[in-house]
Amino acid sequence: MSLVKGKGSALGRRSGQHGGVSDLLWDDVKCFFDLDLMGSLPDVRVPNASVEDWQAVLDLVAEKGWKCQYSEGERVLPVPRAKAVLSRAADAECPDLRVWPTADVLAIFRFQAEDEVDFDVDLRELQGQDRLDVLCGFFREIGRLLGKPVLMDPEGEYGHPVLGFDVEADRVVVLADPQVR
């Protein structure tokens, strides 16, 4: 079943990254990148994940050659296997993996649960069509690899996605009505 909100056909198809066509147009979705409405670090998640999905994401980061940095607290360490990270002691500090799909766009993966791949993006870095295309491309890479949706919720509003990769549509789509300001 498709996640596309409404008809979606009027939204975002022009020259860009997805086979020569952008998934979304900046002017159509810029409200979802407003810091006052969304918070600066919206939550991105892949629901119904597994340890194998987490490992696939780690392998994708390595395969794509994306710059990354794994850390536990202040200690920077080599990227471990997903199973090792997700089986840490309950009282252990939550590690993170910082991934730069491009030099100026950062995603921070947090290993909080094995059943959901979760990460944050910084909306201050995602202003304009070019950066939106980078974000959409990143979501597509992960969503296609896992065959699962990649959903972006406003910061602190879990379960209310506004944008996401739709597996059936094979692109990033709008999942909520745009807020008019």
What this model shows, in words?
By secondary structure, the protein is an alpha+beta fold. 25% of the residues lie in helices and 26% in strands. The protein contains 5 helices and 9 strands; from the N terminus they run H-H-E-H-E-E-H-E-E-E-H-E-E-E. It has a 9-stranded antiparallel sheet with strand order 3-2-4-5-6-1-7-8-9, with helices on one face. Helix 3 crosses helix 5 (129-146). The longest helix has 18 residues, at 129-146. The model is unreliable at 1-18 (pLDDT under 50).
Structure keywords:
181 residues; alpha+beta; nine-stranded antiparallel β-sheet; 5 helices; globular
Structure in a nutshell:
The chain is of the alpha+beta class and 181 residues long.
Number of beta-strand segments: 9
* Percentage of β-strand residues: 25-35%
Tally the helices: 5
- Give the helix proportion (percent range): 10-25%
Specify the overall morphology.
globular
Contiguous runs where pLDDT drops below 50 for at least 5 residues: 1-18
Fold topology:
Blueprint: H1 26-29, H2 35-38, E1 43-46, H3 51-64, E2 67-72, E3 75-77, H4 82-86, E4 96-102, E5 105-113, E6 116-121, H5 129-146, E7 150-153, E8 163-166, E9 171-174
Antiparallel strand pairs: 1-6, 1-7, 2-3, 2-4, 4-5, 5-6, 7-8, 8-9
Helix pairs in contact: 3-5
